[in-house]
Design brief:
Elements lengths: L10 H12 L4 E5 L5 H7 L8 E6 L3 H6 L5 H7 L4 H14 L9 E7 L13 E8 L2 E8 L4 H22 L2
Parallel strand pairs: 1-2, 1-3
Antiparallel strand pairs: 3-4, 4-5
Helix pairs in contact: 1-6
Amino acid sequence: MNERSPEQPDPRAAEAIAALVSRRLTVAVAESLTGGLLTSTLVDVPGASAAVSGGVVAYDTRIKHSVLEVDAGLLALRGAVHPEVALQMADGVRRVLAIDGLPADVGIATTGVAGPDPQDGQRVGTVFVAIVMRSGGRVVPLELEGDRQGIRRQTVERTLDALLEELRNLD
């Protein structure tokens, strides 16, 4: 992400919040490697409360199962860095952050390896981003380069790009 002052939200986040609000959609976020950075970037936008239901930082793999309801067998077999895990996280966060019994319209999840060491047989920079809506979901696989903070920031940028693409496809 480009350096910006605290008063200036990320332009992608601002565009995403505006698109969500104009469509009267809510979003819930499940984060692993980004550790809350994506949710924070979204809520930096004034008026984000009209669209952002909340976020879950599921950094520990066990939280992915116990809170987000990711299949324990999948986690045991494939580990946390896997496209199906990302999909289940995104779908799970929509449901667990339901408001008045209504799941969020959009669920987003990030899972991957920021480093410094490989994880679950995946190299540093391997990331899976999932976006799930009522109509279905998709996973965006990423192979990123850089240090730990750079990979986390790039993941947020690419996730916002993917969200904007999904929202444009609704038109």
